[in-house]
Amino acid sequence: MIKNIIFDLGNVIINYNQNKIINNFTQKEEEIKYIYDEIFHAPEWTLMDLGDITNDKAIEIINKRNQFKYETLTQDFLHEWYKKQPINRDIVEIAKILKNNGYDLFVLSNMANQTYEYFKNDEFFGLCTGIVISAQEHIKKPDEKVYKLLLDRYNLNAEECLFIDDDDSGKNYETANRIGIKGRRIIPNKADDVKKLLLEFNIKI
């Protein structure tokens, strides 16, 4: 029987659409490629998610590596990008119903400290019994250790947990399933698919 719902944040609670985010900063093809290659897909992005470097340190490293070619763009993007992500209010409404129906809600998300600080006062987080953010723990999904950390910290039984994540690589929910947590990948930012997943486990809202 499911008692606990574990939410990922990006593309579940928070609409993390990289194309739309970038469009707030540039429409130039060369600069778009730069943001993808040198920011989103750079090692510093993972280090920020792990809490091993700050946004400012990432800016310094990235600018030096690229000989300050896009110095202002790099600064502006890394200081402001996360503010361009809207909350999926329709999924938050689902979370409210789940909370009112007696389910405990949790967060397990890969996220940098500065991003979490920006969002943490949103009403969604007030619904949650427990929150595990990768940057605060210096460990991230799909490492099995972070799932076990959540279970141990909040004294949860894996088989009583349902995990809602959008990871298209499959690694995040595969790790969860391997240790007994139920769930599957959802379509990013789709409240209807969240509802469908809940119904698959006999959770009516």
Tell me what the structure shows.
By secondary structure, the chain is α/β, with parallel strands linked by helices. It folds into two domains: about 5-15 and about 85-200, Rossmann fold, CATH 3.40.50; about 20-85, no CATH class. Helices cover about 50% and strands about 10% of the residues. It is built from twelve helices and five strands. It has helices spanning about 20-25, 30-40, 45-50, 55-65, 70-80, 90-100, 115-120, 125, 135, 145-155, 170-180, 190-200; strands at about 5, 105-110, 130-135, 160-165, 180-185. The protein has a five-stranded parallel β-sheet, sandwiched between helices. Helix 3 runs antiparallel to helix 4 (about 55-65) and helix 4 (about 55-65) runs antiparallel to helix 5. It is elongated. The two termini are about 15 Å apart. About 35% of the residues are buried. The model has no long low-confidence stretch (mean pLDDT about 95).
Q: Kindly identify the CATH topology of the largest domain.
A: Rossmann fold
The number of helical segments is 12
Return the structural class: alpha/beta
- CATH homologous group name of the largest domain: HAD superfamily/HAD-like
CATH class of the largest domain: Alpha Beta
Looking at how many chains there are and whether they match, the oligomeric state comes to single chain
Largest sheet: 5 strands, parallel
How are strands sequenced across the largest beta sheet? Answer: 3-2-1-4-5
Distance between the termini: 16 Å
Work out the radius of gyration. 18 Å
Q: Judging by the overall fold, what is the CATH architecture of the largest domain?
A: 3-Layer(aba) Sandwich
Report strand %: 5-15%
